[in-house]
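Quick one: structure for this chain?
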Amino acid sequence: MNSGKIGHRAGDCASSIESEQTGAMNPTLEESHTMSIDIGLGNWMFQRARRSPARSALSFEGTTWSYAELQTRIDRLATSLREHGVCRGDRVGFLGLNQPAFFETLFAAARIGAIFVPLNFRLTGAELRYIINDAGVHTLIVDAPHRPVIDSIRSELPCHHFASADVAAEGWLAMLKGAQEREPLAQGETVDADDVAIIMYTSGTTGRPKGAMLTHGNIWWNNINTLLTADFCEDDVSLVVAPLFHIGGLNVTTLLTWQKGGHIVLHRGFEPMRFLEDVSRYKVTTTFAVPAMLLFVSQHPAFEAADLSSLRLIICGGAPVPEPLMKLWNARGVPINQGYGLTETAPLLSFLTPEFSLAKIGSAGMAPMFTELKLVDESGKRITAPGEKGEVCGKGPNIMKGYWNKPDATAQAIDGEGWFHSGDVGYIDADGFLYIADRVKDMIITGGENVYPAEVESALYAHPALAEIAVIGLPDAKWGEAVVAVVALKKDATLDLETLRAFGSEKLARYKVPTRLEVIDALPRNPAGKVLKFELRKRFSAAG
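Got it. Here's what it folds into:
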């Protein structure tokens, strides 16, 4: 790549003047780098495939594709998307379990300048209907298990095309299968770093999900941050078991392993025994997991005898890792390194490197090289005293562009100086290490999934037996936190947990439905009428 002249020798000035006089551009070093380097998702994967064509890129259920083979599939699908009218800036959605088609769609959309919208396959039809309409999805690609839920709402969706991710089906385009008969895309679209690459939806505190707009630059700089913070190399084999619609599954170890030329081993879903088997089979070196996954693996009968000798780096996020669990894995020679981040930060805001994994156990580490962290009090003033709690804020090139179609929510989340306000409370110790202590928002993290009480309360309040309801998170040994419904019933009404869960499952994804029910006479409230959830947490934590 010719990015312009690095310096001037005697005699170069004349040619520079001549260039200016003839209207040609002679950029400075800074300008030339800005203008000529395309850091877009589609281009860097294309460039990696050119440089590592024969290396193993992706293994899935017994089949392995080289970088060249994977890139050819991507470029054939990009051609098909163009032929079906997908243009620059259009949204392309994907709904399905982990599978190669997810990645093919992601990179094919990027190659033509379109925006990828990964959808949570655990959501109900009503939840998906809102997101697909909000994003204005042009083409939706769906795998077989999830076509029925889309068929049930199909007439209410704005999509121009509904395509099958796997086998052909009546009323569905066999776009991915048909794409392999097309010529690969000859030339990809050049994108700017500030162009949106992915819209990832997160649950909203008001009950409506928000689409975090992650740009090509956000993803690039997040991965630069990670590569300069954690130990990744070209020979890494990364096992991906977390759902790809999640920022953790997509962009903690996955994309940057490909940037380095490494090998991804993809599982359709998480299964503890398959996790152990494939770590040994493929000599896996890195992986991302939420604490519940690591707990289930450690509880499997095969854990003690499993060959984990190749596994040198586990990045864990989604919830704090219990200290006994960290020590258990460390005893097997595998350190667990906690990271902290959000969808809106692409996701890395801080990371605890292996050298501090035990000395600073429980910490989320320090900010990476190109991101800043600070804590602020309720008035927005910066907190500098060690140990004093405040809201965690981050600033850097990995911070999202904003929320899709929600300028007010964007202005609330990102202040005028560019600081993203996480809604999480933490403190920084005297050595500069971040600890996450609580949440400004009442978000519950269960099994790595974010659950917002307002959404659950809104869905369950319509139950005829309920007079009032508050949803809280309480500690849970398996899932990190349990979703707990505290209710007051109408006169003479009765309600049990299974009845409430059945009611909630009609409107909510299963992980959002309460797993515990507590019935009381009335919810405690302050003089302004706000439910005192801290009292409920204190009362039922003790009771549990």
